[in-house]
User: What shape does this take?
Amino acid sequence: MEMKDVALKAVMVMPALLLQKPSFKSKCKQHSECLQRRLNLWKLGDFNGLLKECRAIQSRLQSTWKPRSPEHGSRTFANLMLSGKVNAAMRLLDDTSTSGVLQLSEDTLRELKAKHPEAMEADKEMLITGQVPFVDPAMFSIIDESTIARAALHTKGAAGPSGLDADGWRRILVSKNVGTAGTELRSSLAEMARILCTKELKAECDHQSSIEAYVACRLIPLDKCPGVRAIGTGEVIGRIIGKSIISVIKPDILMSTGSLQLAAGLPSGCEAAAHAMEEIFQDEETDAILFVDASNAFNSLNRQVLLHNIRYLCPPMATYVKNCFGSPSRLFVMGGKEILSQEGATQGDPMAMPAYTVGIAPLLQMIKVQKDDVSAASDKKMKHAAYADDFGGAGVLECLRTWWNQVVDFGPLLGYYPKASKSWLVVKEDRVEAAREIFTDTDINITSEGRAYLGGFVGSKESRENYAKELVKKWCEQLMMLSKIAQSEPQAAYAAFVSGFQHKLTYYMHTLPNLGPLLQPIDEILNHYFIPAITEGHHCSQDERKLLSLPARFGGLAIPIFSQIAKREYEYSEKASQQLTENIKSQTAEYSFDNTTHHSTKNDIKRSRNLEHEQTLAELQEMMNGDQKRANEIAQMKGASNWLTSLPTATEISNDVEIEPNLLPLTGEQLHATANGKDEARLDISTGGFWQRGQRAFFDVRVFNPFAPSCRNQKLSTAFSANEREKKRAYAERIVNIEHGSFTPLVFTPYDGSSRETERFISVLASSIAEKRTLAVSITTNWLRSKISFALLRSATLCVRESRSLRKKQTFDAANIEIASAITKLTTY
Assistant: This one.
């Protein structure tokens, strides 16, 4: 066995063996000593010793679970938000999301094994024949270390079997602290990705290969109430490499799945399906819509058929899928058990969804109802679409029955097993009896009221309204809980609202028409509970509420009045998804999507929104006094709202930066009368080669109050220029003539906003960081403005509240003060 065959296994077991804390309360010094000792054992190959030590430590670990108090819940929520884990924080607001992890009993293990069936043989009729298209390996040469870095920055989630989560891998791959080792590791992963895409690896035996550890997963049994929901969590490096590969072959995936399979990454795919099915159902020629649900869909896809057909359907993807799914994957169940994944797409892999959509794509062509299949029914009256395993078909009842029969006949040949008891037939009221007669020998649920579909609703107006009311009731409960958290953690609660809760409501506003009046309870909770919680009890007037509804760049807080924007958002969604909606209605199977038209439509929608915001702001400004207009003008400056719109970010530290550098003393030079000629003069920051190579750049920071009497009557631009000139008169001549460097004043207000030269400084600094870290300039600019914004806020808060000392101040009453004074006098003689 060669070293490369065990290299990945060594990488995966290393974190668990070397990074186990000695105890719950161990300190950094103990960690360093343990790590050094374990590294020595690792080099000696004493893996059994390392394993015994880790097992001994874990056997003494005690459960730290305690009943959660409201205060504890708020702190947990805030910690998740500070870590950037928005989805995890939002799940804390929903008590019904899951009932927790099941204990590994015999029944649980039996259900998990049932959800991972043994491999099935391929039916020859399902195999595509012909010449396999050629794939030039050069197309994958663009995967390099920068591609891996970008994927690592966008990868989130829990750890796989190795125990190292996305945050840990991100620190290893892109942190400056690891030096060139991170770049070398990214280059190695990029090379590994290219090999997996261009070279088929041969397995050593039944389910062991050189990438066995790469495709292994951690399997978690969640309580489905009733039943078991199996959640697979793959290795993080597998997710990073998968994202990198998808960024290259996504156009090929879209071409292979077509316009009727909406889960392959089509823009606004779910919204288009919801709009199309609702419009088709309202058509006079449509009797009903059948929503088909499959049993254990992702774990049942026939791998043999997939691995054969994908070479013809999506050739660039074939080799990678063959390497990852060609042999059974090991699934490690919490509790020490292990099962094999022999069918379907392994969970926890970014390539699982694309592989499934490509593998199931032929079914959409096989189940297409032809003119000769039913009497008095044409193909034009039968329409269908799919989002992964959720199939939807619409038409006259006779066509629907034939379509259902074809799904039942052809689906299992590809590993798609439709389950009638989980499928629903939504019928128009005058066709209910006919539907029951036609589908009498099936277990399909039949209703005339309607059914939810991909966030939308197909059915009667009354049923859709009842469905929406249930959603609003749940959202109100979550928003009340968020308002309680906001009383102690306002910043975390506000960030969660803007980055999580609001997006959820916006999606449903895109898929459910006439939602506005039903959202008034949400607006009332925002007005009476949430906004007062984040503004220290302030209750807004109507005009203030309109201002807060504007985006942060217009001086607002981006807290919409949902009942007023719901109709507009639904119309925007219809406009943005019109291409895909028309493809579904016309049953255009081939990939047909004009990205230029889509981007143009999105820009039109963006301009319409901005125009509405500008009109609202203009109306509000007419009622503002001078100070309010000045405050609104400051809030609209570049970077002024970053502290509102940003989530926590990492710290970037540069070399060759000196804080508060002392200037060279004067040796008889004559300076301008207003220049600072003191020997102890110093500036705030200096660094080498900022503006030009070989020259040292000096910076001095000034924060001025735009509401001071001396500035109140000036334009903001004039006030910024005046402060820049004052700084230059004090230091520019000395820096240029004596230090032979450059001087740039950095002028801010306490509310953010900066001068013209400061904007140029931020732009150059962001470009330098972006080039060094292989990131987009827009990302680094936003990160930099956020850091500056929070620094200004902390400084202002410190000036108002003073520092909070951990040391308790000793207090004396009057008698103690007199005694202390007498003792002091005695000791001085």
Summary: Residues 555 and 633 are 8 Å apart (CA to CA). Residues 463-623 form one domain. The longest strand covers residues 696-703. The chain has a mean pLDDT of 85.
